[in-house]
Design brief:
Blueprint lengths: L3 E4 L1 E4 L2 E8 L17 H28 L6 H12 L1 H4 L1 H9 L3 H17 L4 H5 L1 H16 L14 E5 L4 H6 L7 E4 L7 H9 L3 E3 L4 H4 L5 E5 L4 E4 L3 H21 L16 E6 L5 H7 L3 E6 L13 H14 L4 E5 L25 H7 L1 H14 L5 E5 L5 H20 L9 E6 L2 H5 L1 H7 L2 E4 L1 H9 L17 H16 L3 E4 L7 H9 L4 E4 L1 H12 L3 H4 L1 H8 L3 H11 L2
Parallel strand pairs: 3-4, 4-5, 5-6, 9-10, 9-16, 10-11, 11-12, 12-13, 13-14, 14-15
Antiparallel strand pairs: 1-8, 2-6, 3-7, 7-8
Helix pairs in contact: 1-2, 1-4, 1-7, 2-7, 4-5, 5-7, 12-22, 13-15, 15-16, 18-20, 21-22
The structure holds phosphoenolpyruvate and magnesium ion.
Magnesium ion (MG) binds next to helix 19.
Length: 574
C-alpha cells in the first residue's frame, strides 16, 4: 500500500489512528444496464424489497433514538420515512423500470435527478436545503440495491473511524455528537467555521481544507490524523505507526494529569481569580461542562435547537430545554444567546434568500424582523430564568437602536408573563456580543447600555479583516493577532471596565492556550470556551503572574504588524 501525507488546517488537537470512512455518494457508483422483458417483474420486486428494508432500517434507528431520548433527531428520520412514501420514490422508479427496461438503481438515479433539479429552482433556501434529505433517501435505497446497506452519514459507524468528507455542515456535525468518530478530515472549511468549532467541542482531532482528500484516500485506508500539526498520514509504515502510538499515549497521559487541577480555583500565581466558562450547543454538552468543572455556561448557542428539523421549536419545548440546562448547573450562571441563525448556521428559521449571508438577515436582525419568533424564545428564556441564574446574550448587535428594540421586546415579554402570573427573574441581565467592529469602536456607548459584554472574536476577526471564516482559500489571512483586531478587543475590555461591567471573550481565542497570557495581559478575567479546553487554559493561568506580563500589553498594542506581536507573545509564553 502506498504511504503518503496530506496536509490541512489543524482545527482540533490530538492524535487519532483509525480506518478512513469516506462520506460517499452511492449514487455516483450507479451503472445503467438494460433488462430482458422477462426480468422486469423481478427487478420491480427487488426494488420494492429495498424500499421495505430501508423503511425497516429507519424505523429501527427511530426506535433507538427514542430509547436514548434523542428526540431532536426524530423529525429528521420522520422526514426520510415520509419521503419513502412519496411517489418519486415509491412509484416513479417502477414506471421508469417498466418503460425503459432498466435496472432499479438507474431508475432511482433518473427519478432523483428530476426531483433535484426542481429543488434547485426553489428560491426559499430552507426548502432548497431539503434536497439533501431527498438525496440521502435515494442513497439509502441505492446502497441496499448495490448490496451494502446502511453506511449513511452518521449511522452504523465502526469504532475509531476517521470521517473523510468534502465538507460537513454544522447540522451534520451536531449529529456526530451521538456517534463517536475518531477524527474528521474535510476538503474545505476554515479554522473558525462552525464545523471546526464543533470538532473542537467534541475533542476530536480534525483537519480541514485538505484538498483532494476524498480523491486520494480510499475507504478503509489506515490513517494517522495529527490534529496539532494538521497532517494526515495514510497507510503509514510500522515505524511511523509506532511513533504515533507513543505520541497518542503521551497525549492521553497529559490529559489525565490535567484532571488534578479540576477542583482547584482558577487563580493566577499572583492571586487574581479568573472565571472559566463553557460554550455549549445543546444539553448533551452538560456532561463535559461538569467534567471540566466550569464556573458556568458563558455561551449557549441556541441555534442548534433549530437545526435538523422542519418546524420551529415552540415556547414549551424551548422552555424545557433551557430549564433543564439551568437546573443541571445548580446555581451556576447560564448565559443563553438568542437565536444566531443564518450564514453558515442555517436553521429552520432562515427563510429569505440572501446574496451575502454573513452580512445578511441573520442573528438579531432576523429575530427583530420576525418578532413572533423572537418573542417565543424570549418568553421561554424568561420562564426558565425562574429556575436558576440565567442571563440573555444578544448576537451580532450593530447599533444602539437595535439594542433599544431588543430591550423593548424583552420588556414586552416580561409584561405579558406578569399578566399571565408566570414567574421569571425580573432583574435578568442583558448582554451583547461584541462581534461587529462598529460596536467595538464605540464600545463605550454599548458598555453603558449593556449589563455585560462578550467578545465574539470569531466574527469580530471575520468582519474586521473582511475574511470569510469558513473559506479555506483565505484562511491564511484570518489572523487573531492582527493589530486592528487586538485594538478593538482592547477598546471593548477597557470600556467595560470603565463602566464596571463584566466582559468575557467567548470566541475561539479564549480556548487557545497560546493566547491565554495575551488576554490576561490585556486585562481579561472571564474566558468562555468549549469545555474540552478549560483545564488546559486553567493550567496556563495557574502558572502565570499577571502583574509581570501586564506592561507588555501596551507594547503589543503599539505594534504595527502581527509578526512582532507574535514574537512578544512567544516570549511571554516561555
Ligand atoms: C463568535 O463569533 O466569536 C462567537 C462566539 O459566536 P459564533 O462562533 O457562534 O458565531
Ligand atoms: Mg459569532
Amino acid at each position: 500500500m502506498v504511504n503518503f501525507n496530506l496536509n490541512g488546517i489543524p482545527v482540533s488537537s490530538g492524535i487519532s489512528i483509525g480506518k478512513a470512512k469516506l462520506l460517499t455518494h452511492a449514487l455516483m457508483e450507479v451503472k445503467h444496464y438494460t433488462l430482458d422483458k422477462k426480468e422486469i417483474k423481478n427487478e420491480i420486486k427487488r426494488f420494492n424489497k429495498a424500499i421495505t428494508a430501508v423503511k425497516n432500517d429507519l424505523n429501527k434507528i427511530k426506535n433507538n433514538l427514542l430509547k436514548n431520548n434523542q428526540i431532536e433527531f426524530e423529525t429528521f428520520i420522520n422526514t426520510h420515512l415520509l419521503l419513502l412514501k412519496d411517489k418519486n420514490f415509491s412509484k416513479k422508479p417502477i414506471d421508469i423500470i417498466q418503460d425503459n427496461s432498466c435496472n432499479a438503481e438507474w431508475a432511482i438515479k433518473i427519478s432523483l435527478d428530476e426531483v433535484a433539479s426542481r429543488f434547485d429552482q426553489i428560491s426559499d433556501p430552507y426548502l432548497r436545503e431539503r434536497k439533501l434529505d431527498v438525496i440521502q433517501v435515494a442513497e439509502r435505497i441505492t446502497k441496499y440495491l448495490l448490496g451494502h446497506p446502511g453506511g449513511q452519514i452518521g449511522f452504523h459507524v465502526e469504532p475509531n473511524s476517521i470521517l473523510v468528507a468534502h465538507d460537513i455542515s454544522p447540522a451534520d456535525a451536531i449529529q456526530f455528537k451521538q456517534i463517536k468518530y475518531a477524527g474528521f478530515i474535510t476538503e474545505v472549511g476554515g479554522t473558525n467555521s462552525h464545523t471546526a468549532i464543533l470538532a473542537r467541542s467534541l475533542n476530536i482531532p480534525s483537519i480541514v481544507g485538505s484538498k483532494l482528500a476524498k480523491n486520494i484516500i480510499n475507504n478503509d485506508d489506515l490513517v494517522i490524523l495529527d490534529g496539532d500539526e494538521g497532517v494526515a498520514i495514510i497507510n503509514p509504515n510500522q515505524k511511523i505507526l509506532d511513533q504515533y502510538k507513543n505520541k497518542k499515549i503521551a497525549w492521553a497521559i497529559e490529559q489525565k494529569k490535567l484532571q488534578k487541577i479540576k477542583k482547584i480555583v482558577c487563580t493566577s500565581s499572583d492571586g487574581e481569580t479568573i472565571k472559566l466558562m463553557a460554550n455549549i450547543e445543546d444539553s448533551g454538552d452538560i456532561k463535559s461542562v461538569k467534567d471540566s468543572n466550569a464556573d458556568g455556561i458563558g455561551l449557549f448557542r441556541t441555534e442548534f435547537l433549530f437545526m435538523n428539523r422542519e418546524d420551529l421549536p415552540n415556547e414549551e419545548e424551548q422552555f424545557q430545554s433551557y430549564k433543564s440546562i439551568v437546573k443541571s448547573m445548580r446555581g451556576r450562571e447560564v448565559i443563553i444567546r438568542t437565536l444566531d441563525s443564518g450564514a453558515d448556521k442555517m436553521t429552520v428559521a432562515d427563510k429569505k434568500e440572501t446574496s451575502n449571508p454573513a452580512l445578511g438577515l441573520r442573528a438579531i436582525r432576523l429575530c427583530l424582523s420576525e418578532p413572533r419568533l423572537f418573542m417565543t424564545q424570549l418568553r421561554a428564556i424568561l420562564r426558565a430564568s425562574y429556575f436558576g441564574k440565567i442571563k440573555i446574550l444578544i448576537p451580532m448587535i450593530s447599533s444602539i437602536q437595535e439594542l433599544k428594540q431588543v430591550k423593548l421586546l424583552i420588556e414586552r415579554a416580561k409584561l405579558a408573563l406578569s399578566k399571565e402570573k408566570i414567574k421569571y427573574d425580573e432583574n435578568i441581565e442583558i448582554g451583547g456580543m461584541i462581534e461587529v467592529p462598529a460596536v467595538a469602536i464605540n464600545a463605550d456607548f454599548f458598555a453603558k447600555e449593556l449589563d455585560f459584554l462578550s467578545i465574539g472574536t470569531n466574527d469580530l476577526i471575520q468582519y474586521t479583516l473582511a475574511i470569510d471564516r469558513t473559506d479555506d482559500s483565505v484562511s491564511h489571512l484570518y489572523n487573531s493577532l492582527h493589530p486592528s483586531v487586538l485594538k478593538l478587543m482592547a477598546l471593548t475590555i477597557n470600556a467595560a471596565k470603565k463602566h464596571n461591567k463584566e466582559v468575557a471573550v467567548c470566541g475561539e481565542m479564549a480556548g487557545d492556550t497560546k493566547l491565554t497570557r495575551l488576554l490576561l495581559a490585556m486585562g481579561l478575567t472571564n474566558f468562555s470556551m468549549h469545555p474540552a479546553s478549560i483545564l488546559q487554559v486553567k493550567q496556563k493561568i495557574l502558572e502565570t503572574n499577571i502583574k509581570k506580563i501586564k506592561p507588555l500589553s501596551s507594547k503589543i498594542l503599539k505594534s504595527t504588524d502581527s509578526d512582532s506581536i507574535e514574537s512578544i507573545i512567544n516570549k511571554i509564553n516561555l
